[in-house]
Amino acid sequence: QVQLAESGGGVVQAGGSLRLSCAASGSIFSINAMGWYRQAPGKQRELVASITSGGTTNYADSAQGRFTISRDNARNTVYLQMNSLKAEDTAVYYCNAQVVVGTFIRYKSEYWGQGTQVTVSS
User: Fold this and answer.
1) Which tens digits make up the pLDDT trace of 52-74?
2) Could you say which DSSP state residue 73 is in?
3) Cα 112–122–90 angle (5° rounding)?
4) For residue 70, which of 59, 86, 85 has the smallest C-alpha distance?
């Protein structure tokens, strides 16, 4: 079983910053990609940013230029630096990991964190 431990959420004023962290643990052979998704009340979950094992990043248009995703491969951790936060960024942010798991038998799988609340006050 793979677990994703998320942290860094909180309440900030518009224009402020937050840094989210997500650490993957368990029987992980390798991580192909990790990313952050968010879901606001009454809305569908959407991709915010993702990063592959090779360092290729992808951002939602709303996050482009304001958010930066990075990773520490040695610690199986992904970060999301969020700057210039807006009220519309308020949501529960979920960490996602696409991994290869297993000790004797290895296979690809996907896991989700429990979510961390980000609230931006206007």
Assistant:
1) 999 999 999 999 999 999 999 88
2) G
3) 10
4) 59
Tokens of 25: 């643990």
- What pLDDT, on the 0 to 100 scale, is given for residue 102? 85
Unique residue bearing structure tokens 């199986």? 76
Q: In whole angstroms, what is the distance from residue 49 CA to residue 14 CA? A: 20
Inter-residue contact 109 to 97 (CB < 8 Å): no
Token duo for residue 35: 């990313």
Counts of helices then strands in the chain (DSSP H, E)? 0, 11
Q: Which residues contact 61 (CB under 8 A, 6 or more apart)?
A: none
DSSP letter at 36 equals E
Residue type, 83: N
Over the Cα atoms of the chain, what is R_g?
Answer: 14
The structure tokens listed for 114 are: 């429990």
